[in-house]
Write a structure and sequence with these properties.
Blueprint lengths: L1 E13 L3 E3 L2 E3 L3 E3 L7 H13 L5 H4 L12 H14 L2 E11 L9 H12 L6 E6 L5 H4 L3 E12 L1
Parallel strand pairs: 5-6
Antiparallel strand pairs: 1-4, 1-7, 2-3, 5-7
The protein binds magnesium ion.
Magnesium ion binds next to β1.
């Protein structure tokens, strides 16, 4: 077994699409970023790299690399899952927590859950997708940013 944890934060700015777990959520603001800024997919990708002892997401997908500008986070995740498989590992389970103040994600949570399980290639009962706020405190509470934490467990052949 291998375990990994990941964390990601992006600033929220007006006029950008809010993409979370690969799904666009209607909102006035979205993450600023080199990619689509999907904090869920970034935190999970970072956790996968951690479990593989392969460093962090920034090492493999540096924001200084112009060829990666506008890259979909689902593409990043797929590349990292490919690294995992080439190392003889498979994904046993994933748990993640999205931290944001607005919008309310509960109407979208089941669609996000289903879509994310599909991207990860795991059964829905092997994926935790939770949402919390910071009770108005800090950068998330002021609506300046959005964050996600993730842990993954890998089976190693
Ligand atoms: Mg990121």
């Amino acid at each position: 077994m291998r375990i990994g944890q990941g964390f990601d934060v992006h600033a929220l700015v007006e006029g950008r699409p809010l993409i979370l777990a690969g799904i666009e959520i209607p909102h006035v603001a979205g993450p600023l970023g080199h990619s689509d800024g999907d904090v869920v997919l970034h935190a999970i990708s970072d956790a996968l790299l951690g479990a593989l002892a392969e460093g962090d997401l920034g090492r493999h997908f540096p924001s200084s690399d112009a060829s990666l500008k506008g890259i979909k986070s689902a593409v990043i995740l797929e590349k990292v899952l490919g690294m995992m498989r080439s190392r003889g590992c498979s994904l046993a389970s994933v748990d993640c927590t999205v931290v944001l103040e607005a919008p309310r994600l509960s109407p979208h949570q089941s669609a996000m859950h289903m879509h994310l399980a599909g991207l990860l290639g795991i059964r829905e009962d092997r994926l935790g997708l939770k949402v919390t706020s910071t009770d108005g405190l800090g950068l998330v509470g002021r609506g300046e940013g959005i964050a996600c934490m993730a842990v993954v467990l890998l089976d190693e052949a």
